[in-house]
From TrEMBL:
Cofactor dependence: FAD
Bias (Polar residues): 57-68
Catalytic activity field: (R)-lactate + 2 Fe(III)-[cytochrome c] = 2 Fe(II)-[cytochrome c] + pyruvate + 2 H(+)
One of the record's GO molecular function terms: FAD binding
Record key words, sorted: FAD, Flavoprotein, Membrane, Oxidoreductase, Transmembrane, Transmembrane helix
InterPro entries in the cross-refs: FAD-bd_oxidored_4_C, FAD-bd_PCMH, FAD-bd_PCMH-like_sf, FAD-bd_PCMH_sub2, FAD-linked_Oxase-like_C, Oxid_FAD_bind_N, Vanillyl_alc_oxidase_C-sub2
Family: Belongs to the FAD-binding oxidoreductase/transferase type 4 family.
Broad enzyme group: oxidoreductase
Protein known as: D-lactate dehydrogenase (cytochrome)
Stretches that traverse the bilayer: 73-94
Length: 617
C-alpha cells in the first residue's frame, strides 16, 4: 500500500459544511439471520465464469458458480455479450421476487411499457436482518443506521435534485475490500434490497439519491493506492481515492492523472459519472484514462474488465460500458488508471473580449490553427461581475466575456503557444491579453476561474436559496449561439446566473517514455450555467434549464457534457438519442441487474412516470 488517505483529507466538502458528519451507529443487536433460499438463476448478473480470474474473484464468486451450475442455462458467453444474450434468450424478468418461469424474449430492446415495477423488500424486518448480516461482514463500526447520519447520504448542497422524504437509505455500509462488497451484494440480492453507491458525493443531478431506500454503500474505507507501475504509466487504486490526493502522490514521481472534476470527487464516482474538467481540452475525459475496472455485479459476482495493456481489442469493451453508468450496472471496487507525465512548465493567459461571439470566434480560430493549449475556459460578463462582487479572486476583472488559457510543455513550447494565442486573440478584437510570468501571476490569473462557482454560491441571500449548476455540450460551431440564447433567457428570467464553459477542440499528442500514444480529443464545448434562486423561483429555474437542454439538443448537442443525467436529465435522453436507444440501454440495465437493485431509477426509467412528472418537450 502506498498511501492511506485520511478521512479528513477525503471530505473537503465537509469543511464547507456540505459533507455529512461521520457519526457512527449505536451497536445493532445481533440476531439469528434467517436465510431465505430461493431459485435465483434468472436474477443473476452473469452466466458461466471463465477460469483464471483473480483469487478475490474466485472466493467471491463461489456462491455464484454454484448458483449458475444449478441453473437451467447452459449458455457460455462472455461478459457484456452474455448479459445481453441472457436478456434476449429469456433469462430475464423484472420483479423476480415472484417465482415464475422466465418469459422468452426475442426482441433486442425493452420499451418502458413492457416493464413491471421492481419488487424490492425494504420492510423493517428485512432491513434489520440484513443489517445484522452486514455487521458480520464489515463489523459494527462500519454499519450506520441513525436517521440523521444516514440522511446526509441522500443529497448535498450542490445537488439540483431534492429527494423526497422516502428517498433515503435505511442503512449505510462501509466495506474495505472487493470481497466484502461482493458479500454485501449477495445479501442485498438474496433479500431484494436496493443499493446506492456513494463516493465523494459531489455529483450534481441527484445521482446518489436513494430513490428506493434500502442500502447505501459508502466506499470511504476503500481509499488505497494499491500499486503504482511507473514504467507502464499506470496506477491501480481503490474507488475512494480522491483525484487531488492521487495527484499529490503522483507528482512525487513527475506523473499526473488528468480528469479534474469537483473538489473531493473520488475515482469510483468519477467512473460513475464519466467526468472530465478543465484538462479535457488536452487530455480527454475519464473514458480516456481508465484501463480496467474490477466490478461487483448486482448478484455479488466479481468481474475484471481487462488486464493492464493500454490497448486491447479482446472482446466487448466492458470498461467503457461501466464508465458513466452512475452505479446502475455494477460497483467499482478497483480501477487501473493511465497516467500522464506531469508537465514541468505551465503558464496562464487571460483575454477579455467585447462580445461572446468574438470570444467564441477566437476559440474556433485556436482550434483550427491546431494550437496545443492545455485548457481553454470561458466565463461570461455576468460571471466575471459575480467574481468581482465575491472578492475572492486576486484582482478586479473587466466585466466582459473572458477566456482563460492554460499552457503546458517545455519552456520553448509554452512561449511559442503563448505567441500564437496572443496573435489570434488580437485578431478576434480582444480588449486585453494578460500573460503570467511567474507562479504567483499564474495563480492570480487562474484565480477567477477557480472561484467562479463559489462566488455564485456566496451570493445566496438566504440559507434556503438554491444553487443549480448544470451543463450541456454542443458542436463548437454552435457555441456562441447557445451562449447568447441562454444568456438572454437568464436575463429575461430575472435570476442570477453565470455562464462558464470548458471550450475548445483539439488534438493532443503525448509522448510517454515507454509507450507512444496519440489520441484525439473530442469537441469540447461544455457549457455550464450556475443559477441562484429562491424556493419561490424554482419553477423559473427549471424552465431555464429545460430550455437550455432543448436548445442543445436542437443544435445537435448533448443534454450533459460531463455531469451525467442523474434524476434531472434522465427523461431528456430519449430526445437526444431516440426512444429505441434508451430502450436498448434499458435492456442493458436488465441484463446486468435483473432485479433493479443498483441505483434503480437512474439513467433509465424502469417504471412509468406519474402524471405531470415529465416536462413537455
Ligand atoms: C464544485 C464542483 C465542481 C464540479 N466540477 C466538475 C467538472 O468540472 N467536471 C465534471 O465532470 N464534474 C464536475 N463536478 C461534478 C462531480 O465532481 C463529478 O460528477 C464527479 O465525477 C463525482 O464524483 P464523486 O466521487 O463525488 O461521486 P458521487 O457523487 O459519490 O457519485 C456519482 C455517481 O457514481 C456512483 N458511484 C459512486 N461510487 C461508485 C462505485 N464505487 N461504483 C459504482 N458507482 C459508484 C454513485 O452512485 C453516483 O451515481 C463538480 C462538482 C462540484 C461540487
Amino acid at each position: 500500500m502506498l498511501k492511506s488517505a485520511s478521512r479528513a483529507g477525503h471530505r473537503p466538502l465537509q469543511a464547507l459544511s456540505l459533507g455529512r458528519p461521520y457519526t457512527r451507529h449505536s451497536p445493532i443487536p445481533k440476531e439469528r439471520v434467517h436465510i431465505r433460499h430461493s431459485r435465483q438463476f434468472t436474477s443473476s448478473s452473469t452466466l458461466l465464469r471463465p477460469d483464471g480470474e483473480r483469487p478475490v474473484q474466485e472466493t467471491s464468486n463461489q456462491g455464484q458458480k454454484q448458483q449458475s451450475a444449478g441453473s437451467n442455462y447452459g449458455l457460455i458467453a462472455s461478459a457484456f455479450g452474455a448479459a445481453l444474450a441472457l436478456a434476449s434468450l429469456g433469462g430475464y424478468y423484472v420483479g423476480a421476487g415472484k417465482q415464475q418461469q422466465p418469459a422468452v424474449l426475442t426482441t433486442s430492446t425493452t420499451p418502458l411499457k413492457d416493464m413491471q415495477p421492481p419488487q424490492h423488500d425494504t420492510s423493517s424486518e428485512n432491513i434489520k436482518a440484513a443489517t445484522a448480516e452486514f455487521v458480520e461482514i464489515v463489523g459494527e463500526d462500519n454499519v450506520m443506521s441513525e436517521k440523521e447520519a444516514v440522511e446526509t447520504y441522500a443529497t448535498s448542497d450542490w445537488s439540483s435534485y431534492t429527494p423526497k422524504k422516502t428517498e433515503v437509505a435505511a442503512v449505510v455500509v462501509s466495506p474495505s475490500t472487493t470481497e466484502e462488497v461482493s458479500r454485501i451484494m449477495k445479501v442485498c440480492h438474496r433479500r431484494r434490497l436496493p443499493v446506492t453507491a456513494y463516493a465523494g458525493g459531489t455529483s450534481l443531478e441527484g445521482h446518489f439519491a436513494p430513490t428506493r431506500g434500502g442500502v447505501c454503500i459508502d466506499f470511504a474505507n476503500m481509499n488505497q493506492i494499491l500499486k503504482l507501475h511507473k514504467d507502464d504509466l499506470d496506477v491501480v487504486v481503490q474507488p475512494a481515492v480522491q483525484w487531488e490526493l492521487l495527484n499529490d502522490e503522483l507528482s512525487k514521481d513527475g506523473l499526473f492523472f488528468p480528469p479534474d472534476p469537483g473538489p473531493g470527487a473520488m475515482i469510483g464516482g468519477m467512473v460513475g459519472t464519466g467526468c472530465s474538467g478543465t484538462n479535457a481540452y488536452a487530455h480527454g475525459t475519464m473514458r480516456d484514462w481508465v484501463v480496467s475496472l474490477t466490478i461487483v455485479l448486482a448478484d455479488g459476482t466479481v468481474i475484471k474488465t481487462r488486464q493492464r495493456p493500454r490497448k486491447s481489442s479482446a472482446g466487448y469493451d466492458l470498461t467503457r460500458a461501466f464508465i458513466g453508468n452512475e452505479g446502475t450496472l455494477g460497483l467499482v471496487t478497483e480501477a487501473t488508471l493511465k497516467l500522464a507525465i506531469k508537465p514541468n512548465n505551465e503558464s496562464v493567459a487571460v483575454a477579455a473580449f467585447p462580445t461572446i461571439h468574438s470570444a467564441a470566434a477566437c476559440v474556433s480560430d485556436i482550434v483550427k490553427e491546431g494550437v496545443q493549449v492545455a485548457a481553454v475556459e470561458l466565463m461570461d460578463d455576468v460571471q466575471m461581475k459575480i467574481v468581482n462582487m465575491g472578492g475572492a479572486s486576486a484582482r478586479t476583472w473587466d466585466e466582459a466575456p473572458t477566456l482563460f488559457f492554460k499552457f503546458a510543455g517545455t519552456p520553448d513550447a509554452v512561449k511559442e503557444q503563448v505567441k500564437i494565442v496572443q496573435k489570434l486573440v488580437k485578431k478576434a478584437n480582444s480588449k486585453s491579453f494578460d500573460f503570467a510570468r511567474n507562479a504567483e501571476e499564474i495563480n492570480a490569473l487562474w484565480s477567477a476561474r477557480k472561484v467562479a462557482l463559489w462566488s455564485v454560491f456566496e451570493m445566496r441571500q438566504d440559507p434556503s436559496d438554491h444553487f443549480w449548476t448544470t451543463d450541456v455540450a454542443v458542436p463548437i460551431s454552435r457555441l456562441a449561439d447557445i451562449i447568447e440564447e441562454t444568456k438572454d433567457d437568464i436575463r429575461k428570467s430575472g435570476l442570477v446566473g453565470g455562464i462558464v464553459g470548458h471550450v475548445g477542440d483539439g488534438n493532443f499528442h503525448s509522448k510517454f517514455p515507454s509507450v507512444q500514444e496519440t489520441f484525439q480529443v473530442q469537441a469540447l464545448t461544455d457549457l455550464k450555467a450556475f443559477l441562484l434562486f429562491s424556493e419561490k423561483e424554482k419553477r423559473t429555474a427549471e424552465g431555464l434549464v429545460h430550455r437550455m437542454v432543448k436548445r442543445a439538443v436542437e443544435m445537435e448537442g448533448t443534454v450533459t457534457g460531463e455531469h451525467g443525467v442523474g434524476m434531472i436529465k434522465r427523461d431528456y435522453l430519449a430526445h437526444e438519442l431516440g426512444e429505441s436507444t434508451v430502450d436498448a440501454m434499458r435492456r442493458m440495465k436488465q441484463a446486468f441487474d435483473p432485479l433493479c437493485l443498483l441505483n434503480c431509477d437512474k439513467v433509465v426509467r424502469v417504471q412509468q412516470p406519474k402524471p405531470g412528472e415529465v416536462s413537455e418537450w
